[in-house]
Amino acid sequence: MYAILSNIKIQVNEKIYVKDPEMTPLGKKIIENSILLIDEIGFDNFTFKKLGEKIGSNESSLYRYFENKHKLLVYLSSWYWSWMEYKLVFATTNITDPKEKLRKAITIVTEKVADDSSTEHINEAILNKIIIAEFTKTLHTKEVDQENKEGFFMIYKRVISRIVTIVNEVNPTYPYAKSLVSTIVEGSLHQHFLTDHLTTITNCNSSISTTQFYLNLTENVLR
Protein backbone atom coordinates (compact mmCIF):
# COMPACT_ATOMS: atom_id res chain seq x y z
CA MET A 1 0.00 0.00 0.00
CA TYR A 2 2.75 2.48 0.93
CA ALA A 3 4.49 1.84 -2.39
CA ILE A 4 1.29 2.91 -4.13
CA LEU A 5 0.82 5.92 -1.86
CA SER A 6 4.33 7.12 -2.62
CA ASN A 7 3.37 7.53 -6.28
CA ILE A 8 0.27 9.61 -5.53
CA LYS A 9 0.34 13.39 -5.09
CA ILE A 10 -1.71 14.41 -2.09
CA GLN A 11 -4.29 16.94 -3.29
CA VAL A 12 -5.04 20.07 -1.26
CA ASN A 13 -7.50 22.82 -2.19
CA GLU A 14 -5.47 25.46 -4.04
CA LYS A 15 -7.42 28.26 -2.36
CA ILE A 16 -5.72 27.40 0.94
CA TYR A 17 -2.24 28.41 -0.23
CA VAL A 18 -0.74 31.25 -2.23
CA LYS A 19 1.89 29.03 -3.86
CA ASP A 20 1.88 25.22 -3.77
CA PRO A 21 4.59 24.28 -1.24
CA GLU A 22 4.98 20.85 -2.79
CA MET A 23 6.42 22.43 -5.93
CA THR A 24 9.65 23.87 -4.49
CA PRO A 25 12.41 22.81 -2.08
CA LEU A 26 11.66 25.85 0.11
CA GLY A 27 7.97 25.00 0.18
CA LYS A 28 8.70 21.45 1.31
CA LYS A 29 11.11 22.82 3.91
CA ILE A 30 8.36 25.09 5.21
CA ILE A 31 5.94 22.17 5.56
CA GLU A 32 8.50 19.85 7.14
CA ASN A 33 9.68 22.36 9.72
CA SER A 34 6.29 23.87 10.49
CA ILE A 35 5.18 20.40 11.62
CA LEU A 36 8.24 20.05 13.85
CA LEU A 37 7.91 23.56 15.29
CA ILE A 38 4.16 23.38 15.98
CA ASP A 39 4.73 20.06 17.74
CA GLU A 40 7.51 21.62 19.78
CA ILE A 41 5.90 24.89 20.90
CA GLY A 42 2.19 24.54 20.05
CA PHE A 43 0.16 26.38 17.43
CA ASP A 44 -0.68 29.34 19.69
CA ASN A 45 3.02 30.15 20.14
CA PHE A 46 3.91 29.38 16.52
CA THR A 47 4.71 32.34 14.26
CA PHE A 48 6.12 32.75 10.79
CA LYS A 49 8.98 34.73 12.32
CA LYS A 50 9.95 31.74 14.48
CA LEU A 51 9.59 29.37 11.52
CA GLY A 52 11.74 31.64 9.36
CA GLU A 53 14.46 31.64 12.00
CA LYS A 54 14.29 27.85 12.24
CA ILE A 55 14.75 27.30 8.50
CA GLY A 56 17.09 30.26 7.91
CA SER A 57 14.70 32.12 5.65
CA ASN A 58 13.16 35.60 5.64
CA GLU A 59 9.70 35.77 7.20
CA SER A 60 8.43 37.43 4.02
CA SER A 61 9.31 34.33 1.98
CA LEU A 62 6.81 32.29 4.00
CA TYR A 63 3.99 34.66 3.07
CA ARG A 64 4.63 33.80 -0.57
CA TYR A 65 3.24 30.35 0.25
CA PHE A 66 0.62 31.03 2.94
CA GLU A 67 -1.43 34.11 3.75
CA ASN A 68 -1.25 33.45 7.49
CA LYS A 69 -0.58 30.68 10.02
CA HIS A 70 -4.25 29.65 10.10
CA LYS A 71 -4.11 28.82 6.39
CA LEU A 72 -0.93 26.85 7.04
CA LEU A 73 -2.70 24.81 9.73
CA VAL A 74 -5.66 24.22 7.41
CA TYR A 75 -3.18 23.07 4.76
CA LEU A 76 -1.55 20.59 7.16
CA SER A 77 -4.98 19.34 8.20
CA SER A 78 -6.13 18.96 4.59
CA TRP A 79 -2.95 17.12 3.68
CA TYR A 80 -3.44 14.78 6.64
CA TRP A 81 -7.05 13.93 5.80
CA SER A 82 -6.20 13.46 2.12
CA TRP A 83 -3.44 11.04 3.11
CA MET A 84 -5.89 9.34 5.47
CA GLU A 85 -8.43 9.02 2.66
CA TYR A 86 -5.92 7.23 0.43
CA LYS A 87 -5.13 4.83 3.25
CA LEU A 88 -8.83 4.23 3.82
CA VAL A 89 -9.58 3.54 0.16
CA PHE A 90 -6.67 1.15 -0.40
CA ALA A 91 -7.32 -0.74 2.83
CA THR A 92 -11.02 -1.34 2.19
CA THR A 93 -11.33 -1.67 -1.59
CA ASN A 94 -11.07 -5.46 -1.75
CA ILE A 95 -13.08 -6.21 1.41
CA THR A 96 -16.56 -7.51 0.53
CA ASP A 97 -17.99 -8.06 4.00
CA PRO A 98 -19.45 -4.69 5.17
CA LYS A 99 -18.80 -5.39 8.86
CA GLU A 100 -15.18 -6.26 8.23
CA LYS A 101 -14.83 -3.21 5.98
CA LEU A 102 -16.25 -0.97 8.72
CA ARG A 103 -13.91 -2.41 11.33
CA LYS A 104 -10.98 -1.72 9.02
CA ALA A 105 -12.13 1.82 8.30
CA ILE A 106 -12.62 2.63 11.98
CA THR A 107 -9.21 1.20 12.81
CA ILE A 108 -7.52 3.40 10.21
CA VAL A 109 -9.09 6.67 11.37
CA THR A 110 -8.78 6.03 15.12
CA GLU A 111 -5.39 4.38 15.61
CA LYS A 112 -2.17 6.25 16.38
CA VAL A 113 -0.26 6.92 13.19
CA ALA A 114 3.24 5.73 12.29
CA ASP A 115 5.53 7.72 10.03
CA ASP A 116 5.25 6.88 6.34
CA SER A 117 8.78 6.76 4.93
CA SER A 118 7.51 7.36 1.39
CA THR A 119 6.92 11.06 2.24
CA GLU A 120 10.37 12.26 3.22
CA HIS A 121 9.48 15.84 4.16
CA ILE A 122 6.38 15.00 6.23
CA ASN A 123 6.48 12.99 9.42
CA GLU A 124 2.93 11.63 9.64
CA ALA A 125 3.38 10.46 13.24
CA ILE A 126 4.17 14.00 14.38
CA LEU A 127 1.48 15.45 12.10
CA ASN A 128 -1.00 13.08 13.77
CA LYS A 129 -0.01 14.58 17.14
CA ILE A 130 -0.73 18.04 15.75
CA ILE A 131 -4.12 16.97 14.40
CA ILE A 132 -4.98 15.50 17.81
CA ALA A 133 -3.99 18.70 19.62
CA GLU A 134 -4.91 21.41 17.12
CA PHE A 135 -7.49 20.19 14.57
CA THR A 136 -10.46 21.97 16.17
CA LYS A 137 -8.67 25.28 15.60
CA THR A 138 -9.15 24.83 11.86
CA LEU A 139 -12.95 24.64 12.37
CA HIS A 140 -13.77 26.76 15.42
CA THR A 141 -13.29 30.17 13.80
CA LYS A 142 -15.57 32.99 12.70
CA GLU A 143 -14.60 32.26 9.09
CA VAL A 144 -15.62 28.58 9.14
CA ASP A 145 -18.79 29.03 7.06
CA GLN A 146 -17.02 30.98 4.32
CA GLU A 147 -14.06 28.58 4.33
CA ASN A 148 -16.48 25.67 4.13
CA LYS A 149 -18.13 27.26 1.06
CA GLU A 150 -14.69 27.55 -0.51
CA GLY A 151 -14.08 23.84 0.03
CA PHE A 152 -11.41 24.04 2.73
CA PHE A 153 -12.88 21.06 4.59
CA MET A 154 -14.00 19.01 1.62
CA ILE A 155 -11.43 16.25 2.12
CA TYR A 156 -12.26 15.88 5.81
CA LYS A 157 -15.97 15.66 5.00
CA ARG A 158 -15.21 13.15 2.23
CA VAL A 159 -13.43 10.84 4.69
CA ILE A 160 -16.51 10.91 6.90
CA SER A 161 -18.84 10.35 3.93
CA ARG A 162 -16.88 7.27 2.85
CA ILE A 163 -17.31 5.70 6.27
CA VAL A 164 -20.99 6.72 6.38
CA THR A 165 -21.50 4.72 3.19
CA ILE A 166 -20.01 1.65 4.88
CA VAL A 167 -22.21 2.14 7.97
CA ASN A 168 -25.25 2.22 5.68
CA GLU A 169 -24.12 -1.06 4.15
CA VAL A 170 -23.88 -2.63 7.60
CA ASN A 171 -27.23 -1.32 8.82
CA PRO A 172 -29.34 0.57 6.24
CA THR A 173 -32.03 1.33 8.84
CA TYR A 174 -29.75 3.11 11.32
CA PRO A 175 -30.89 6.77 11.19
CA TYR A 176 -27.80 8.52 12.61
CA ALA A 177 -24.94 7.33 10.41
CA LYS A 178 -23.48 10.80 9.81
CA SER A 179 -23.55 11.75 13.48
CA LEU A 180 -22.06 8.40 14.44
CA VAL A 181 -19.16 8.64 12.02
CA SER A 182 -18.34 12.29 12.72
CA THR A 183 -18.36 11.41 16.43
CA ILE A 184 -15.98 8.51 15.82
CA VAL A 185 -13.55 10.48 13.67
CA GLU A 186 -13.34 13.65 15.75
CA GLY A 187 -14.05 11.91 19.05
CA SER A 188 -11.08 9.62 18.55
CA LEU A 189 -8.81 12.69 18.40
CA HIS A 190 -10.26 13.83 21.71
CA GLN A 191 -9.79 10.41 23.30
CA HIS A 192 -6.14 10.36 22.21
CA PHE A 193 -5.75 13.80 23.77
CA LEU A 194 -7.32 12.64 27.03
CA THR A 195 -5.14 9.53 27.06
CA ASP A 196 -2.05 11.71 26.79
CA HIS A 197 -3.07 14.50 29.16
CA LEU A 198 -6.25 13.90 31.23
CA THR A 199 -6.10 10.22 32.00
CA THR A 200 -8.68 10.20 34.81
CA ILE A 201 -11.61 10.95 32.48
CA THR A 202 -11.06 8.28 29.85
CA ASN A 203 -10.94 4.49 29.89
CA CYS A 204 -8.43 4.51 27.05
CA ASN A 205 -4.85 3.80 28.09
CA SER A 206 -1.87 1.60 27.21
CA SER A 207 -4.07 -1.50 27.57
CA ILE A 208 -7.33 -0.24 26.05
CA SER A 209 -6.85 1.64 22.82
CA THR A 210 -9.07 4.34 21.36
CA THR A 211 -9.65 2.00 18.44
CA GLN A 212 -10.94 -0.74 20.73
CA PHE A 213 -13.38 1.70 22.32
CA TYR A 214 -14.84 2.85 19.00
CA LEU A 215 -15.02 -0.66 17.56
CA ASN A 216 -16.97 -1.73 20.64
CA LEU A 217 -19.21 1.34 20.49
CA THR A 218 -19.99 0.88 16.79
CA GLU A 219 -20.69 -2.83 17.13
CA ASN A 220 -23.19 -2.20 19.92
CA VAL A 221 -24.86 0.76 18.24
CA LEU A 222 -25.37 -1.00 14.89
CA ARG A 223 -26.77 -4.29 16.26
Automatic annotation (TrEMBL):
Family annotation (Pfam families): TetR_N
PROSITE patterns (UniProt xref): HTH_TETR_2 (PS50977)
GO molecular function: DNA binding
InterPro entries per the UniProt record, alphabetical: Homeodomain-like_sf (IPR009057), HTH_TetR (IPR001647)
UniProt keyword DNA-binding present: yes
Residues annotated to bind DNA: 47-66
Coiled-coil zones: none
Sequence ranges assigned to domain HTH tetR-type in this UniProt record: 24-84
Gene3D superfamilies: Tetracycline Repressor, domain 2
Keywords linked to the UniProt accession: DNA-binding
Name of the protein this chain belongs to: Transcriptional regulator, TetR family
Lineage: Bacteria, Pseudomonadati, Bacteroidota, Flavobacteriia, Flavobacteriales
